[in-house]
Amino acid sequence: MPVSTEWLLHCATTLAQLDPGTTASAAQLAQYYDLPAAYLAKQLQALVRSGALAATTGPRGGFRLARPASEITLLDIVEAVDGAASPYECREIRQQGRGALSPEECRNTCVLAEKMADAHEAWRRSLAATSLADVLATLPPSAPERTRRRMAGAT
Amino acid sequence: MPVSTEWLLHCATTLAQLDPGTTASAAQLAQYYDLPAAYLAKQLQALVRSGALAATTGPRGGFRLARPASEITLLDIVEAVDGAASPYECREIRQQGRGALSPEECRNTCVLAEKMADAHEAWRRSLAATSLADVLATLPPSAPERTRRRMAGAT
DNA sequence: GATATTGCGGATCTTTTTAGTCCGAGATAG
DNA sequence: CTATCTCGGACTAAAAAGATCCGCAATATC
């Protein structure tokens, strides 16, 4: 899992603390967390494509949440960056070699692939259970204003 | 996640169907699933190191389960191949850059890292809930004997 | 209307991981 | 005791992913 996953989780949390209608540019966010600006910008695009963020170009442009923070889950962000595919891929080796099963016996999906898919679903459910609003609720009440203040002064 | 994960899940399931005390060599298993023998042997070693399999060298040697099938979970196998580390790694970027939090504010772990760890734990729990014995229980009753028969004739 | 600023996408380079091969150490059977 | 069969770990290519850079389109400001 790339390091940019952490970057975007934090950036989305930061954007969720801005006043509605306010945007933050990629350069601002990069400076806020001391990250390589070019690469961060590229990853932010993935979140725009996924529909979690919205972007406006031109001067005073930047990124903002595309939906209320309560409707953006950690899963939305993680899958936008890392892809939604399961890491385990069943290649049906049970149908190959000396021990090959007949096609008829393979009508139902492989038990092992099924269990791996179950685990992946458990992982997804866990991440989908937390929204950005939930994350903000755990921060001290003074956090949003400080974030806005520190963000405003950046380039 | 490497393709060898699938290989070893299936190989372990196969070994679980052998009579106690019987071993299967890497060459036999490779032939059984039509896999590159040398590379499979390398991956089987990881399972030996993790303690899930036991190996005996010399003529008539090979691999066998190191414990009863009911005490080997899918998680044991997956983590032996793919490593036990969580794919998400918190690098504490909240302490860097313009928005850096004070060390005192970082006494408790980052909320995002916590949620990601929770998801990983959910994934592990799901895999740990299934043992090789559970997998065998889903197969038709005739499966183990056929597996032994087809395995016996191999090189 | 010109200019500067910002996001967007493609092409490129580097690094890491994966896939695969090979030869040596050790143990068993005869 | 010897020959053969097995695992064991080191070594080498290949592919994928990470990370970076540059030019293009769009928009608000002056």
Write a brief caption for the model:
Two copies of one chain form a homodimer. In chain A, strands 1-2 form a two-stranded antiparallel ribbon.
Notes on the protein architecture:
The structure is a homodimer of 155-residue chains. With 155 residues, chain A is mainly alpha-helical. Chain A has a domain of 104 residues: Arc Repressor Mutant, subunit A (Orthogonal Bundle). Chain A is 50% helix and 5% strand. Chain A is built from seven helices and two strands. Chain A has a two-stranded antiparallel sheet with strand order 1-2. The longest helix of chain A has 18 residues. The radius of gyration of chain A is 20 Å and the shape is elongated. The two termini of chain A are 30 Å apart. Chain A binds a DNA duplex (30 and 30 nucleotides) through helix 3.
Name of the CATH superfamily of the domain at 4-85 and 131-152 in chain A: Winged helix-like DNA-binding domain superfamily/Winged helix DNA-binding domain
Global structural class of chain A = mainly alpha
Q: Using only CA atoms, what is the Rg of chain A? A: 20 Å
SSE ordering of chain A: HHHEEHHHH
Shape of chain A from CA axes? elongated
- List the uncertain runs of chain A: none
Strand order of the largest sheet of chain A: 1-2
Helix count, DSSP H or I runs of 4 or more residues of chain A: 7
Assembly type of the chains comes to homodimer
In percent, how helical is the residue content of chain A?
Answer: 40-55%
How many strands appear in the DSSP assignment of chain A?
A: 2
User: What is the largest interface, and how many residues per chain?
Assistant: A-B, 50 and 50 residues
CATH fold topology of the domain at 4-85 and 131-152 in chain A = Arc Repressor Mutant, subunit A
